[in-house]
Design a protein that fits this description.
Oligomer: single chain
Structural class: alpha/beta
Shape: globular
Number of helices: 13
Distance between the termini: 43 Å
Radius of gyration: 19 Å
Helix content: 40-55%
Largest sheet: 7 strands, parallel
Length: 288
């Protein structure tokens, strides 16, 4: 039995759907089972059992993990992420789960310039000390996050950032789900650490040029610098301070550490990753 944490999120939901497509039964955890059930398609819903659980409540996790063999662990970034994921790790260890697949982040190091990545490092270290077989997926920027730019592009034709000409790896969350399904159903890759990217890295300038071509109107990139972007995200986009800081840190990481495509996804799944152009075409109505 495979337990999916974060089944209502981008990567958890993608993994759940990928496993359902393979006919693999799962157990999905949610603080609101009814809401999760309503969001799932009929095919996926028929192949998963939805259980109530809250990452802030270790007892609920132990109940949900009982009898499980594998855990897919992903949670949204946030101030409580480390505590919640460590709760899940401890509960899984207590319940005898034998394999944990964790969604982590690039630069998950103790001295990472990205605070969220430092948190991921702490969780990875606890997993390694637990004795449980641990597989770590380290995806780069989700293509789905670009949809947050859609309102500004639709109304003003502008993308704001602080990356200069640096390039960013984008990966479709559905590909993360397919990669996760591969390592959950094939014991061969278990225990490894795998970066996940798309097939090409894009600068913000290249991203706006591509969007402009697809929309048949000019889209421009406005570089605000780190402090200017931070102020914009809080004052204009209404982001909480921690999230605005995270976005700036991620963009500055791309500046200081050049990003390039990786072939790990191809090796795990046997196919090329989805392209950014295909993703934008699929969601073009959101940018109009």
């Amino acid at each position: 039995m495979i337990v999916i944490m974060g089944a209502g999120g981008a990567t958890g939901g993608a993994t759940l759907r990928s496993l359902a497509a393979l006919g693999v039964p799962t157990r999905s955890l949610s603080r609101d089972p009814g809401r999760l059930a309503a969001a799932l398609d009929e095919h996926t819903l028929a192949r998963t059992a939805i259980l109530p659980a809250d990452a802030a409540d270790p007892d609920s996790l132990r109940t949900a993990f009982r009898g499980a063999h594998q855990l897919f662990l992903t949670m949204a970034n946030g101030p409580h992420q480390v505590r919640y994921e460590l709760n899940a790790v401890e509960a899984a260890v207590d319940c005898g789960v034998g394999h944990i697949v964790k969604v982590s982040a690039p630069a998950a190091e103790p001295d990472s310039p990205v605070a969220v990545s430092r948190g991921h490092h702490l969780i990875e270290e606890r997993l390694r000390s637990s004795g449980v077989t641990t597989t770590v997926l380290r995806p780069y920027a989700f293509m789905q996050k670009l949809l947050l730019l859609a309102p500004g592009i639709a109304t003003a034709g502008v993308v704001h950032g602080a990356m200069g000409r640096a390039r960013c790896n984008y990966v479709d969350a559905r590909d993360i789900g397919d990669a996760a399904a591969a390592v959950l159903t094939d014991p061969g890759p278990a225990g490894g650490t795998y970066p996940l990217t798309g097939g090409r890295a894009y600068s913000h300038q290249e991203l706006t040029e591509l969007l402009g071509e697809l929309l048949a109107r000019p889209i421009r990139y406005l570089d605000l610098g780190p402090s200017g972007l931070h102020a914009h995200l809080i004052g204009r986009a209404g982001m909480p301070e921690w999230l605005a800081t995270h976005v700036v840190e991620i963009q500055q990481l791309a500046v200081t550490r050049g990003e390039a495509p990786d072939d790990t996804f191809l090796r795990l799944t046997g196919r090329a990753p989805r392209t950014l152009e295909a993703f934008l075409r699929e969601n073009l109505h959101r940018f109009r």
